[in-house]
Amino acid sequence: MPVTSSRWIVLPWSLALIIAVTAGTGCDVFSLRDPEPPITESGTFTQPDTPDHVVDNLQAAIAELNVANYTRSLAEELVFQPTAAAEQRDPIWTGWGRLQEQSYFTQLVAAASAGGDHSLELSDETMTVLAEDRYSLEAGYVLTVQHSRVEVPSVVQGRLLWVITQGADSQWRLEEWTDRQVGSEPSWSDLKARFSQ
User: Fold this and answer.
1) CATH number of the domain at 51-195, out of 3.50.30.10, 3.10.450.50, 1.10.3710.10, 3.30.70.260?
2) Pairing relation of β-strands 172-180 and 155-166?
3) Greatest CA separation for the chain
4) Measured in Å, how far apart are the chain's first and last C-alpha atoms?
5) CA atoms within 13 A on the CB side of 131
6) DSSP summary character for residue 28
7) Which residues contact 51 (CB under 8 A, 6 or more apart)?
8) How confident is the model at residue 106 (pLDDT cuts 50, 70, 90)?
9) CB 40, CB 61: distance < 8 Å
10) pLDDT tens-digit series, residues 19-78
11) pTM (predicted TM-score)
Protein backbone atom coordinates (compact mmCIF):
# COMPACT_ATOMS: atom_id res chain seq x y z
CA MET A 1 0.00 0.00 0.00
CA PRO A 2 1.51 3.35 -1.03
CA VAL A 3 2.37 5.92 1.63
CA THR A 4 0.38 9.18 1.39
CA SER A 5 2.21 12.39 2.28
CA SER A 6 0.27 14.95 4.30
CA ARG A 7 1.47 17.81 2.08
CA TRP A 8 -0.58 16.45 -0.82
CA ILE A 9 -3.64 16.85 1.36
CA VAL A 10 -2.73 20.32 2.71
CA LEU A 11 -1.83 21.87 -0.66
CA PRO A 12 -5.22 21.42 -2.30
CA TRP A 13 -6.98 22.86 0.79
CA SER A 14 -4.60 25.86 0.85
CA LEU A 15 -5.11 26.46 -2.85
CA ALA A 16 -8.87 26.16 -2.44
CA LEU A 17 -8.77 28.67 0.42
CA ILE A 18 -6.75 31.20 -1.64
CA ILE A 19 -9.14 30.86 -4.58
CA ALA A 20 -12.16 31.23 -2.32
CA VAL A 21 -10.76 34.38 -0.62
CA THR A 22 -9.69 35.94 -3.92
CA ALA A 23 -13.04 35.23 -5.57
CA GLY A 24 -14.92 36.43 -2.49
CA THR A 25 -13.20 39.83 -2.50
CA GLY A 26 -13.88 40.39 -6.18
CA CYS A 27 -10.18 40.80 -6.94
CA ASP A 28 -9.17 39.52 -10.34
CA VAL A 29 -5.52 38.56 -9.99
CA PHE A 30 -5.18 38.20 -13.77
CA SER A 31 -6.63 41.59 -14.74
CA LEU A 32 -4.52 44.24 -16.45
CA ARG A 33 -3.30 47.16 -14.35
CA ASP A 34 -2.71 50.71 -15.48
CA PRO A 35 0.99 51.11 -16.31
CA GLU A 36 3.20 52.99 -13.88
CA PRO A 37 4.42 56.36 -15.17
CA PRO A 38 7.98 56.20 -16.52
CA ILE A 39 10.82 57.33 -14.28
CA THR A 40 12.10 60.59 -15.72
CA GLU A 41 14.56 63.31 -14.82
CA SER A 42 12.87 66.23 -13.15
CA GLY A 43 12.66 69.56 -14.92
CA THR A 44 12.28 70.54 -18.54
CA PHE A 45 14.54 68.61 -20.89
CA THR A 46 13.95 67.90 -24.57
CA GLN A 47 15.87 65.08 -26.21
CA PRO A 48 18.78 66.96 -27.82
CA ASP A 49 18.39 65.62 -31.34
CA THR A 50 19.00 69.08 -32.83
CA PRO A 51 21.43 71.88 -31.88
CA ASP A 52 18.46 74.15 -31.04
CA HIS A 53 17.32 71.72 -28.35
CA VAL A 54 20.69 72.06 -26.59
CA VAL A 55 20.15 75.82 -26.38
CA ASP A 56 16.57 75.35 -25.14
CA ASN A 57 17.71 72.81 -22.54
CA LEU A 58 20.44 75.09 -21.18
CA GLN A 59 17.98 77.98 -20.92
CA ALA A 60 15.46 75.76 -19.11
CA ALA A 61 18.14 74.36 -16.76
CA ILE A 62 19.14 77.90 -15.77
CA ALA A 63 15.52 79.03 -15.30
CA GLU A 64 14.81 75.92 -13.18
CA LEU A 65 18.24 75.84 -11.45
CA ASN A 66 18.58 72.23 -12.56
CA VAL A 67 22.20 71.04 -12.23
CA ALA A 68 21.53 67.59 -13.75
CA ASN A 69 19.97 68.97 -16.93
CA TYR A 70 22.61 71.70 -17.20
CA THR A 71 25.40 69.13 -16.97
CA ARG A 72 23.86 66.65 -19.40
CA SER A 73 23.77 69.43 -22.02
CA LEU A 74 27.58 69.64 -21.91
CA ALA A 75 29.96 67.40 -23.84
CA GLU A 76 32.43 65.33 -21.84
CA GLU A 77 35.23 67.19 -23.67
CA LEU A 78 33.86 70.68 -22.97
CA VAL A 79 36.41 73.46 -23.47
CA PHE A 80 35.73 76.94 -22.05
CA GLN A 81 37.55 80.11 -23.08
CA PRO A 82 36.87 83.00 -20.66
CA THR A 83 36.93 86.69 -21.52
CA ALA A 84 40.38 88.20 -21.92
CA ALA A 85 39.92 90.25 -18.73
CA ALA A 86 38.86 87.23 -16.67
CA GLU A 87 41.69 85.12 -18.04
CA GLN A 88 44.21 87.80 -17.06
CA ARG A 89 42.72 88.33 -13.59
CA ASP A 90 41.83 84.78 -12.45
CA PRO A 91 44.29 81.84 -12.58
CA ILE A 92 41.55 79.19 -12.59
CA TRP A 93 40.95 78.65 -16.28
CA THR A 94 43.65 76.14 -17.17
CA GLY A 95 41.91 72.83 -17.71
CA TRP A 96 38.43 74.30 -17.19
CA GLY A 97 36.04 71.66 -18.50
CA ARG A 98 32.77 69.91 -17.79
CA LEU A 99 33.62 69.06 -14.17
CA GLN A 100 34.54 72.66 -13.33
CA GLU A 101 31.42 73.90 -15.12
CA GLN A 102 29.24 71.55 -13.10
CA SER A 103 30.95 72.61 -9.86
CA TYR A 104 30.46 76.32 -10.54
CA PHE A 105 26.80 75.85 -11.47
CA THR A 106 26.16 73.68 -8.41
CA GLN A 107 27.52 76.44 -6.15
CA LEU A 108 25.50 79.08 -8.00
CA VAL A 109 22.32 77.03 -7.57
CA ALA A 110 23.06 76.56 -3.84
CA ALA A 111 23.25 80.35 -3.42
CA ALA A 112 20.26 81.12 -5.65
CA SER A 113 16.96 82.37 -4.29
CA ALA A 114 14.11 79.90 -4.62
CA GLY A 115 11.38 81.37 -6.80
CA GLY A 116 13.68 84.17 -7.94
CA ASP A 117 14.06 85.49 -11.45
CA HIS A 118 16.54 83.22 -13.20
CA SER A 119 16.95 83.39 -16.98
CA LEU A 120 19.30 83.30 -19.94
CA GLU A 121 18.16 85.68 -22.66
CA LEU A 122 19.86 85.52 -26.04
CA SER A 123 19.79 88.21 -28.72
CA ASP A 124 21.18 88.77 -32.20
CA GLU A 125 21.59 85.00 -32.65
CA THR A 126 23.46 83.53 -35.60
CA MET A 127 23.54 79.74 -36.05
CA THR A 128 26.16 78.53 -38.53
CA VAL A 129 26.70 75.05 -39.95
CA LEU A 130 30.38 74.19 -39.57
CA ALA A 131 30.01 70.53 -40.56
CA GLU A 132 27.25 67.93 -40.65
CA ASP A 133 27.81 67.21 -36.95
CA ARG A 134 29.05 70.63 -35.84
CA TYR A 135 27.20 73.93 -35.50
CA SER A 136 28.13 77.25 -33.95
CA LEU A 137 25.88 79.76 -32.23
CA GLU A 138 26.98 83.34 -31.71
CA ALA A 139 24.72 85.58 -29.65
CA GLY A 140 24.50 88.36 -27.14
CA TYR A 141 23.43 87.19 -23.70
CA VAL A 142 21.96 88.54 -20.48
CA LEU A 143 22.16 86.01 -17.65
CA THR A 144 20.10 86.73 -14.55
CA VAL A 145 20.36 84.60 -11.41
CA GLN A 146 19.06 86.03 -8.15
CA HIS A 147 21.40 84.79 -5.43
CA SER A 148 22.43 85.55 -1.85
CA ARG A 149 26.00 86.75 -2.44
CA VAL A 150 25.68 90.53 -2.38
CA GLU A 151 29.25 91.11 -3.56
CA VAL A 152 28.58 89.26 -6.83
CA PRO A 153 26.32 90.74 -9.53
CA SER A 154 23.06 88.88 -10.21
CA VAL A 155 22.98 90.05 -13.84
CA VAL A 156 25.89 89.53 -16.24
CA GLN A 157 26.10 90.10 -19.96
CA GLY A 158 28.32 89.70 -22.97
CA ARG A 159 28.57 87.69 -26.15
CA LEU A 160 28.97 83.95 -26.40
CA LEU A 161 30.18 81.60 -29.07
CA TRP A 162 28.99 78.04 -28.58
CA VAL A 163 30.10 75.12 -30.73
CA ILE A 164 27.49 72.38 -30.48
CA THR A 165 28.44 68.93 -31.72
CA GLN A 166 26.69 65.63 -32.37
CA GLY A 167 28.05 62.62 -30.52
CA ALA A 168 28.19 58.95 -31.52
CA ASP A 169 24.79 58.52 -29.83
CA SER A 170 23.31 61.09 -32.28
CA GLN A 171 22.64 63.53 -29.42
CA TRP A 172 23.90 67.12 -29.54
CA ARG A 173 25.88 68.78 -26.74
CA LEU A 174 27.79 71.98 -26.08
CA GLU A 175 31.48 71.23 -26.68
CA GLU A 176 33.26 74.59 -27.05
CA TRP A 177 32.34 77.84 -25.31
CA THR A 178 33.98 81.23 -25.80
CA ASP A 179 32.90 84.17 -23.64
CA ARG A 180 33.39 87.79 -24.74
CA GLN A 181 33.00 90.90 -22.63
CA VAL A 182 30.88 93.82 -23.80
CA GLY A 183 32.22 97.15 -22.56
CA SER A 184 32.87 97.17 -18.82
CA GLU A 185 29.84 95.06 -17.87
CA PRO A 186 30.50 91.96 -15.72
CA SER A 187 30.52 88.81 -17.85
CA TRP A 188 29.57 85.16 -17.41
CA SER A 189 33.28 84.44 -16.90
CA ASP A 190 33.27 86.81 -13.92
CA LEU A 191 30.28 84.96 -12.43
CA LYS A 192 31.95 81.58 -12.95
CA ALA A 193 35.15 82.81 -11.32
CA ARG A 194 33.30 84.04 -8.22
CA PHE A 195 31.26 80.86 -7.78
CA SER A 196 34.15 78.50 -8.42
CA GLN A 197 35.97 79.68 -5.27
Assistant:
1) 3.10.450.50
2) antiparallel
3) 105
4) 88
5) 7
6) -
7) 127, 135, 137, 164, 172
8) very high
9) no
10) 554 555 454 544 554 544 433 458 899 999 999 999 999 999 999 999 999 999 999 999
11) 0.79
